[in-house]
Amino acid sequence: MIEVKNITKSFDGKTILHDVSARFETGKTNLIIGQSGSGKTVLVKSLVGLIRPEKGEILYDGRDLMKMDTNQIKDLRKEIGMLFQGSALFDSETVLGNVMFPLTMFTSMTPAEIKDRAQFCLERVKLKGADSKYPSEISGGMQKRVAIARAIALNPRYLFCDEPNSGLDPRTSIVIDELLSDITHEYNITTIINTHDMNSVLGIGENIIFINKGHREWVGDMHQIYQTSNEALNEFVFANDLFQKVRAYVISNASDRQLK
């Protein structure tokens, strides 16, 4: 579990995060949502140590990132997997080479062990047989799955995903969502997803943190979000006409069940 307690961050005298507290649960898909400029990216960068808040605590299973020295932070980052928005694959490396990279850099495994582990991770994301292809030879969805395989290669305890469905079609986005959810539960990872994708929010949002103008305004799950009275959250999540109709349908059915 990662717990944030009362963190505040400012830039050039402007406060971006106002005394934010949140819990990111182990074995759950934790989603951070909010409009552009709301502070959610600053929150994620603070969580991984790229930005240092002026005050507060960032606890990784009780270990305070804010009190760690450089070596301790390096050790902690070995427990963290990262899935970047653009996949960030090496164009000059094969699919297998991309997944082997962190194992070669950060472990003392033998070449044979590294290859076996990388192939296992590729099989886990349903990319068996794609070892020798290059990123330019596979689809965007497959590239994202390669990036997930690379992110889990080191058996991370914590997995950060930045807009994992960016640039993907709706069907492929669902595949990526389901894969992240499955991996989170299977390996009991603390997964944190920074997203604008409302399909992800309503499909895999087990713990949703809504950031609005630098404040944590709401916390709940994909079921509770239909019933929220938070106007800013409703405007953000249900801005699309289809989502408004879905919300109205869910609320209507819930009322009918209560009457019965």
Automatic annotation (TrEMBL):
<dbReference type="GO" id="GO:0016887">
    <property type="term" value="F:ATP hydrolysis activity"/>
</dbReference>
<keyword id="KW-0067">ATP-binding</keyword>
<dbReference type="InterPro" id="IPR003593">
    <property type="entry name" value="AAA+_ATPase"/>
</dbReference>
<dbReference type="InterPro" id="IPR017871">
    <property type="entry name" value="ABC_transporter-like_CS"/>
</dbReference>
<dbReference type="InterPro" id="IPR003439">
    <property type="entry name" value="ABC_transporter-like_ATP-bd"/>
</dbReference>
<feature type="domain" description="ABC transporter">
    <location>
        <begin position="2"/>
        <end position="238"/>
    </location>
</feature>
<dbReference type="GO" id="GO:0005524">
    <property type="term" value="F:ATP binding"/>
</dbReference>
<dbReference type="InterPro" id="IPR027417">
    <property type="entry name" value="P-loop_NTPase"/>
</dbReference>
<keyword id="KW-0813">Transport</keyword>
<protein>
    <submittedName>
        <fullName>ABC transporter ATP-binding protein</fullName>
    </submittedName>
</protein>
<keyword id="KW-0547">Nucleotide-binding</keyword>
<dbReference type="Pfam" id="PF00005">
    <property type="entry name" value="ABC_tran"/>
</dbReference>
